[in-house]
Here is the input.
Amino acid sequence: MDLEIQKRIKDLAEKYGAENTVVILGGAEPEAAGIAAETVTNGDPTFAGPLSGVSLGLAVYHILESEVKAAVDPGVYDEQVGMMEMVLDVDAISKEVSKYREQYSKYKA
Here is the structure.
């Protein structure tokens, strides 16, 4: 997760409240999605960005997780995400993101 995105997320959580902020990830690799999930929940693990040492505890999900899919219009989801769902390892990505959500998120969507 680049530094500008970290700053935006931090600013939005401060403006609207962490309890009102949900982060939806879209990375294609489980490891990258996991690092992003850790960053918005427990803080930047690389200690390089605005979320370094900042534990926001945000609710975080990947666009491929069933909770997100259930909340989106099926036609829109299929049009915008359907191809990703067919070519990526949905189970591995979901497992990686949920691991950090369960461990560090203070809020649930």
Summary: The two ends are 21 Å apart (CA to CA). The CA atoms of residues 27 and 33 lie 5 Å apart. The longest strand covers residues 22-25.
